[in-house]
Specification:
Elements: E1 12-13, E2 26-34, E3 46-48, E4 51-52, E5 59-61, E6 66-69, E7 72-76, E8 78-84, E9 87-91, E10 93-96, E11 104-111, E12 116-124, E13 132-140, E14 145-154, E15 163-172, E16 182-188, E17 192-197, E18 200-206, E19 215-222, H1 224-230, E20 241-255, E21 285-291, E22 305-309, E23 313-316, E24 331-335, E25 340-349, E26 352-360, E27 369-374, H2 382-386, E28 397-400, E29 405-410, E30 414-420, E31 426-434, E32 439-444, E33 450-456, E34 464-471, E35 478-488
Parallel strand pairs: 5-9
Antiparallel strand pairs: 1-2, 2-20, 3-10, 4-5, 6-7, 7-20, 8-9, 10-19, 11-16, 11-20, 12-13, 12-19, 13-14, 14-15, 16-17, 17-18, 21-35, 22-25, 23-24, 24-35, 25-34, 26-31, 26-35, 27-28, 27-34, 28-29, 29-30, 31-32, 32-33
The chain binds calcium ion (2 copies).
């Protein structure tokens, strides 16, 4: 049920190429409007944030910062003296309480506040039912920047927090945007998301996955890094506001003609490329190496392992940061960001190879473990050793990509996702590779029997000469244990 204020008379706009009307390539029906003509923000229509922003952010966002003056919503930045709930500043954030719409045309006539993130956006909240996404019609910054972004959240099974994927584009207006009002619009349909500035399309994106109703939001943020960059004093922000003359939304009745638009960009959301099993599992196994890291003195590496880069070490497998123990009184290989370790086989191996290991990849947005079979490289060249995980005749290049994806690399397709696994826990993997065919299958689970995906490398390795393990991310710790490599004949 929409509140009475939202049940506006349906107004059908025929093609009229004027500012403040929807694009004239379609016929539209108005579904929402607030002209901000009252004495105060209509609390039947808008909800307001009533809380501080987290972390080091300087502000809270309070309802009273939303003020209507002369038919304009002013979202005022204030100095809070004394500080309110620990924050010396405040800004504002409102959203439509009940109004949500899938697709349509959304526009607002706005004037920027300097050193603010001037945001007019559509939000599809998290929780169920999904999807969870955000269309930033504009997160503009003074003096002239228009910033148009699409965010999409994917969820690992059982994880309450989504992983964020974004595509952003900025466009500079020919005038200072805190000088006067301009119209920021967005047309959103099944196929496209089109951003408009004063009626002119400035960005077109193929709709990646936004097919559910979203609400309308107006908010500001103090741009502390922009202040710092300009050496500007935050005290100048007291009283600065983002001003909105009106917000309107429309639903498309019908298309009238093909619009003339800039070329549409594509944004690939991560997806799994399915692959059938490719490597025959039958055959006699010959062990090439096995390692449980128990024979190493903590802080050192066991015999046979070499430092590729930085400081890979062996350490006690302790339950920390919520990480479960793989086993009591166990040692494991520890890889900090950039750490790289490798171990060579006694001789080169062609054909099929089986690699089993336990791996722990930290949760979060950092990338994780890279597993590679090494080709030939010059061991007397320190630089060559450091980069041996990707130089020379390398083989399968398998990576615990950030955000729960397992990926492999090909020069044509770059990182290709072949499976998803939950991070932040020990997991058991078994890779079966055919290095001369350039294919692999991956099995996982306690018994290593569950086929979860595989890939085609598009290049073939003459021979595998060893394995490399590297933490490819920038944060967290990767652990590896119980590594066994076998040849299959
Ligand atoms: Ca107005
Ligand atoms: Ca161990």
């Amino acid at each position: 049920m929409r509140s009475a204020t939202l049940c506006l008379t349906a107004v059908v706009f025929l093609a009229m190429p004027a500012l403040g009307t929807p694009p004239d390539h379609a016929e539209w029906e108005q579904t929402f409007a607030d002209e901000f003509d009252g004495d105060s923000v209509n609390s039947d229509v808008w909800a307001s944030q009533h809380s501080i922003r987290g972390g080091e952010k300087p502000e809270g966002r309070w309802p009273e910062n939303n003020v209507i003056e002369d038919g304009v919503l002013r979202q005022i930045t204030k100095r809070e003296d004394p500080p309110r709930e620990g924050k010396e500043w405040s800004t504002a954030h409102i959203w439509t309480k009940e109004f949500m719409q899938k697709y349509g045309y959304f526009e607002a006539r706005m004037r920027y506040g300097r050193y603010l993130n001037n945001a007019f956006w559509l939000w599809r909240p998290g929780g169920n039912p999904r999807p969870h996404f955000e269309i930033d019609i504009n997160e503009g910054h003074t003096p002239r920047q228009v910033a148009m972004t699409f965010h999409f959240y994917t969820y690992e099974e059982g994880q309450p927090r989504g992983d964020l994927w974004s595509t952003s584009r900025t466009w500079d207006a020919p005038v200072d945007l805190d000088e006067d009002f301009h119209i920021y619009g967005c047309e959103w349909n099944e196929k496209l998301i089109i951003w408009y500035f004063d009626g002119k399309p400035v960005r077109v994106l193929e709709n990646p996955n936004a097919h559910a109703p979203a609400d309308i939001r107006l908010s500001t943020v103090i741009m502390t890094h922009q202040l710092a960059k300009d050496g500007a004093d935050i005290t100048g922000l007291d009283g600065v506001s983002m001003d909105t003359d009106w917000v309107r939304a429309y639903r498309k009745v019908k298309d009238l003609r093909e619009p003339t638009l800039p070329e549409a960009e594509r944004f690939e959301l991560p997806r799994i490329v399915e692959q059938d099993r490719q490597v025959d599992l039958t055959g006699e196994r010959t062990e090439l190496m096995t390692e449980d890291f128990e024979g190493a003195q903590a802080g050192l590496l066991p015999d046979g392992w070499q430092v590729g880069d930085r400081e890979p070490t062996v350490e006690a497998d302790t339950a920390s940061d919520g990480k479960p123990l793989l086993a009591e009184e166990n040692q494991a290989l520890r890889l900090g960001p950039g750490d790289y370790v490798f171990r060579l086989f006694e001789g080169p191996v062609t054909g099929r190879v089986e690699i089993e290991l336990n791996a722990y990849n930290p949760p979060g947005r950092s990338e994780g473990l890279l597993l590679v079979t090494l080709g030939d490289f010059d061991q007397s060249d320190a630089e060559g050793v450091k980069t041996s995980y990707y130089t020379g005749d390398i083989g399968p290049y398998i990576h615990w990509y950030y955000r729960g994806f397992l990926s492999y690399y090909t020069e044509t397709d770059k990182w290709t996702h072949f499976a998803r696994r939950t991070r932040g826990t020990w997991d058991h993997f078994r890779f079966v590779l055919d290095v001369s065919q350039g294919v692999f299958d991956c099995y996982a689970g306690d018994s290593g029997a569950e086929f979860i995906g595989g890939g085609v490398f598009r290049h073939r390795q003459k021979a595998a000469r060893g394995i490399g393990l590297r933490h490819r991310g920038s944060k967290g710790t990767v652990y590896v244990d119980n590594v066994t490599v076998r040849r299959i004949d």
